[in-house]
């Protein structure tokens, strides 16, 4: 969902399609294993399901997959992307499941959802750093004393009522 | 064996729709019990934290077929997690006909008729109209873009104590500084001061006729585990002379559907005509150099904008397309809004719908996140949502802490799609002018359309076929059973709905008190608005 660079030169699971850390480095696996979520035990089954779909995709599109690698991992990055698009398309079988997985993977990157946010910022969490999430005050709370351009930037609608509502 | 308790008035749900009648009934002398499905948290509990288990304790993401709805799940309901934009619905909304071809609101309801009730709510909340120097950067950017494109733009009235607000942008988590004037700070404590009893983690399951003479309804409930809302830890039942159903537009119709056999049937309009308020979110990816060159904005030396995470979620809004003289389904408002990172997934980065919202280009776009601006269009949808058969308990099936699956299905009609297209075109006309930004609606591949404004699933009206409630908010054929939440609002509003839900709840109170008095309770209407 959020592609990143390989963790080491032999990394197969991560295709290395984009510079910088991706969802996995940002903690997607940790997030999926959070006890609060209660889906950790299902992950091998889910991997099996994805691999079955990857095999079907390869068969339909005439891709030869290395038998030494899990089928999804054996797909080229562009094929992985296309397959993900298929799995997540409205009306596709098991789509709700894949949407949840996509949501959790992205949440690991965009929100460090497995960590307290202050802690994630202290650790320079790769996703929060990538999106430029601002840092809190020393007490772990966010405040923005400077927050406004401080001037009128448009004229208000002529039919605005006292109180600022539309007529 | 569970003992059946008795009370004068039972209120189900503690958001705008529940808190307001609870207060007026309690202050008028009735014994009031409030059942609330979610936990009771207050300011110190509302942390600045995106970890699962923090805000997810009080926010539900409810996935239907074709639509996903965000809603509060706590004492105070969605008022605790909402963004506090507090607007009166434009006058033309009350004349809407939708595709049914007749006026959908009760004939007694117009903007002028509702204004005194809006006034009352604004006394209690209170609603502040920010000055321009209180509008945060994203609202300023949107306003400047509107002005450059020859449009108007307004600061948005908010139910926020501006003097206390730190512009932290964590409203979804509940306000740690008590600056947001949620129901936790006005109607609910005032109701409690008059003896109303609030029971958190109590989920109503069915409404049936009472067996005790003089009582009208018997409500069965489940108590939920505080750590895992999927686990029931107890059951009970309460009989009441009056029931006020205010579980929100995603739960109220489901509760009635489940209760239909017990109640000898409910009106056929229950669970139909759901509206997502025509909500449509787009992300504008702003070009910082253009912000400087075209709009002349600079918030710090060398930084034109980069202000997405700063401020309050909602700051400014254009009323230009709320023209009463134009045709239905072409009118909408455009509002600058901020959503926390959990929704970043939905932003589209390319023109290929199936894969536009993830992958390499999307990651590149994330690197410009501080330069995003999101825009919410609130359009005239066609009330096309329909609920399927109710789940065994509650209003949806909870699959994880804050993730629920609903039987609601939403297939936008051509009318709704036309409204969305018009709103998209206007957002582009304003924000893409001379390359200022690139605008794209949220992907619908992931979650369907997304709404934080569920309405109209059990609506009021004059026509018994298409409205479940009469103009007083009473369920047709069921005296003493009232609905006062967003489900009663007949149509989308073209603005954020909370103030209208609250005003309609205020308006229903004299009738609810009168009905309660008819049932033998010494209750009077007329308590002053709480502050
Ligand atoms: C993130 C977000 C931002 C928003 N921003 C704005 C905004 O800026 N301006 C605006 O006008 N509107 C906004 N809204 C919408 C607004 O908050 C809602 O329209 C409004 O609060 C709905 O009020 P209600 O009384 O109908 O329902 P709610 O406030 O949702 O209350 C319903 C309550 O009933 C409880 N409940 C449900 N089922 C049961 C049951 N079986 N038994 C007992 N209790 C039950 C729920 O837990 C909930 O607390 C926002 C909403 C969200 C989620």
End-to-end distance of chain A: 45 Å
Structural class of chain A: mainly alpha
Shape of chain B: globular
Q: Fraction of residues of chain A in helices?
A: 40-55%
Largest interface pair: A-B, 72 and 83 residues
Report the principal-axis shape of chain A: extended
Order of helices and strands of chain A: HHHHHHH
Main pleated-sheet profile of chain B: 7 strands, mixed
Rg of chain A, Å, rounded: 22 Å
Number of strands of chain B: 19
N-C termini distance of chain B: 42 Å
Unreliably modeled segments of chain A: none
Q: State Rg of chain B.
A: 22 Å
- Helix share bin of chain B: 10-25%
Q: Please indicate the percent range of residues of chain B in DSSP E strands (runs of 2 or more).
A: 15-25%
Summed up:
The complex is a heterodimer of chains A (167) and B (531). Chain A is mostly helical.
Topology record:
The complex is a heterodimer of chains A (167) and B (531).
Chain A: H1 28-32, H2 43-61, H3 71-74, H4 77-87, H5 95-111, H6 117-122, H7 126-131
Chain B: E1 4-12, H1 16-27, E2 32-35, E3 59-65, E4 67-72, H2 78-81, H3 111-124, H4 137-148, E5 154-155, H5 187-193, E6 197-199, E7 202-209, E8 217-224, E9 232-245, H6 252-263, E10 279-286, H7 288-295, E11 316-318, E12 332-337, H8 360-366, E13 372-379, E14 386-387, E15 397-400, E16 403-409, H9 414-431, E17 437-441, E18 449-451, E19 481-483, H10 498-518
Parallel strand pairs in B: 1-2, 1-9, 2-6, 3-16, 4-18, 9-19
Antiparallel strand pairs in B: 3-4, 5-11, 7-8, 8-9, 10-13, 10-17, 11-12, 12-13, 14-16, 15-16
Helix pairs in contact in B: 1-5, 1-10, 3-10
Flavin-adenine dinucleotide binds at residues 12-18, 35-38, 70-74, 77-79, 81-85, 172, 203-204, 246-249, 251, 255, 314, 394-395, 452-453, 485-486, 496-499, 501 of chain B.
């Amino acid at each position: 969902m959020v592609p990143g660079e390989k963790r080491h030169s032999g990394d197969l699971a991560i295709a290395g399609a984009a510079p910088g850390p991706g969802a996995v480095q940002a903690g997607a696996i940790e997030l999926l294993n959070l006890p609060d979520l209660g889906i950790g035990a299902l992950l091998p089954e889910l991997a099996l399901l994805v691999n079955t779909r990857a095999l079907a995709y390869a068969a339909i599109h005439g891709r030869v997959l290395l038998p030494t690698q899990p089928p999804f991992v054996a797909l080229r990055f562009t094929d992985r992307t296309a397959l993900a698009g298929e799995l997540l398309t409205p009306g596709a079988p098991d789509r709700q499941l894949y949407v949840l997985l996509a949501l959790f993977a992205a949440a690991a990157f965009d929100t460090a959802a497995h960590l307290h946010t202050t802690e994630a910022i202290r650790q320079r969490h790769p996703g929060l750093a990538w999106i430029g999430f601002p840092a809190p005050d020393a007490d772990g709370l966010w405040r923005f004393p400077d927050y406004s351009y401080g001037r009128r930037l448009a004229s208000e609608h002529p039919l605005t009522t006292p109180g600022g509502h539309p007529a | 064996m569970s003992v059946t308790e008795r009370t004068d008035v039972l209120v189900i749900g503690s958001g705008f729709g529940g808190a307001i009648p609870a207060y007026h009934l309690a202050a008028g002398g009735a014994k009031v019990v409030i059942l609330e499905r979610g936990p009771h948290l207050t300011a110190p509990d509302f942390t600045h934290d995106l970890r699962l288990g923090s805000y997810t304790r009080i926010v539900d993401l409810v996935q239907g077929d074709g639509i996903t709805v965000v809603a509060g799940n706590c004492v105070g309901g969605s008022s605790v997690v909402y963004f506090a934009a507090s607007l009166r619905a434009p006058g033309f909304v009350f004349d809407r006909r939708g595709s049914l071809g007749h006026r959908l609101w009760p004939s007694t309801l117009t903007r002028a008729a509702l204004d005194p009730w809006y006034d009352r709510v604004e006394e209690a909340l209170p609603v502040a109209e920010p000055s321009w120097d209180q509008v945060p950067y994203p609202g300023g950017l949107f306003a400047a873009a509107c002005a450059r494109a020859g449009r108007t733009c307004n600061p948005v009235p908010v139910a926020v104590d501006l003097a206390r607000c730190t512009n932290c942008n964590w409203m979804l988590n509940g306000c740690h500084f008590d600056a947001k004037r949620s129901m936790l700070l006005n109607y609910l404590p005032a109701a409690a001061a008059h003896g109303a009893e609030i029971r958190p983690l109590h989920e109503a399951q069915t409404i049936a006729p009472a067996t005790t003479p003089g009582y009208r309804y018997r409500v069965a409930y489940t108590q939920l585990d505080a750590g895992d809302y999927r686990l029931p830890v107890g059951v009970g039942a309460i009989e009441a002379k009056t029931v006020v159903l205010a579980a929100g537009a995603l739960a109220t119709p489901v509760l009635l559907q489940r209760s239909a056999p017990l109640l000898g049937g409910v009106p056929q309009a229950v669970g139909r005509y759901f509206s997502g308020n025509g909500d449509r979110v787009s992300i504008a990816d702003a070009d910082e150099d253009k912000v400087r060159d075209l709009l002349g904005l600079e918030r710090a030396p060398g930084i034109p904008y980069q202000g997405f995470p700063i401020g309050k979620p909602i700051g400014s809004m254009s009323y230009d397309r709320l023209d009463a003289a134009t045709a239905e389904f072409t009118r909408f408002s455009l509002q600058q809004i901020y959503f926390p990172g959990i929704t970043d997934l939905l932003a589209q980065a390319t023109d290929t719908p199936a894969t536009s919202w993830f992958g390499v280009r999307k990651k590149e776009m994330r690197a410009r996140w501080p330069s995003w601006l999101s825009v919410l269009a609130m359009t005239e949808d066609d009330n096309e949502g329909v609920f399927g058969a109710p789940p065994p308990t509650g209003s949806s099936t909870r699959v994880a802490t804050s993730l629920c699956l609903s039987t609601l299905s939403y297939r936008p009609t051509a009318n709704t799609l036309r409204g969305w297209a018009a709103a998209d075109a206007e957002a582009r006309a304003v924000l893409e002018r001379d390359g200022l930004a690139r605008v794209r609606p949220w992907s619908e591949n992931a979650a369907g359309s997304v709404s934080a404004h569920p309405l109209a699933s059990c609506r009021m009206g004059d026509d018994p076929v298409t409205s479940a409630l009469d103009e007083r908010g009473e369920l047709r054929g069921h005296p003493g059973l009232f609905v006062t939440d967003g489900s009663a609002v007949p149509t989308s509003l073209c603005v954020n709905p909370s103030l209208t839900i609250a005003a309609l709840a205020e308006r229903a109170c004299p009738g609810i008190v009168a009905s309660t008095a008819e049932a033998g309770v010494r209750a009077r209407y007329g308590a002053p608005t709480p502050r």
